[in-house]
Amino acid sequence: MILLASCLPTKLSQNVGLDLWNLYIPPALTSRPSALSRVPSNTLANSASTSEPPQFTPDDFETWIEFQRKKGKAVSKDTWSLFVDFIRSIDKDFKEYDKEGELHAVE
Questions:
Q1: CA contacts within 13 A on the Cβ side of 29
Q2: What gap in Å lies between CA 71 and CA 76, rounded to an integer?
Q3: Cβ atoms within 10 A of the Cβ of 21, count?
Q4: What is residue 64's predicted lDDT score, i.e. its pLDDT?
Q5: Sign of the CA dihedral with 42 first, then 46, 51, and 53 last
Q6: pLDDT tens per residue, the chain (107 residues)?
Q7: What CA–CA distance (Å, rounded) separates 34 from 50?
Q8: Cα–Cα distances in Å, from 34 out to 18, 50, 62?
Q9: Whose CA is closest to 21, among 70, 93, 76, 71?
Q10: Peptide bond into 33 cis (omega under 30)
Q11: Fewer CB within 10 Å: C terminus or N terminus of the chain?
Q12: Looking at the DSSP assignment, which residues form a beta bridge with residue 12?
């Protein structure tokens, strides 16, 4: 996923961004081991190796896609990359979400 993000242009049209997310994220949420394995918030995401499955669910993903559709905007490379980090770091109850963190700019 990280490699894909590095190949993306600065912005993707909304349709292309949503199609790419739909192509790559759902299989990674359900595969074991997963490229989206959960990385505890007190660990550096790039250096962590874990077999803990993502706590972000397919239903959470559908909520994200619907949110993006309602926004009606292009998907930036930053949003793509930060979303992958978010999936890997968030707990199932979303208690570890940092409103001052990077992804708050997407709201």
A1: 18
A2: 13
A3: 19
A4: 95
A5: positive
A6: 555 556 667 888 999 999 999 999 999 998 888 888 887 666 544 545 566 788 899 999 999 999 999 999 999 988 888 898 889 888 888 887 666 665 555 54
A7: 9
A8: 20, 9, 19
A9: 76
A10: yes
A11: C
A12: 75
DSSP state letter for 54: P
User: What's the whole-model pTM score?
Assistant: 0.74
- Give the helix/strand (H/E) hosting 84: helix 77-89
Write down the residue that tokens 């930036």 correspond to: 76
- Pairing of β 75-76 and β 11-12: antiparallel
Measured between alpha carbons, how far is 34 from 19 in angstroms, rounded to an integer?
A: 20
The domain spans of the chain are: 2-106
Tokens of 103: 């992804």
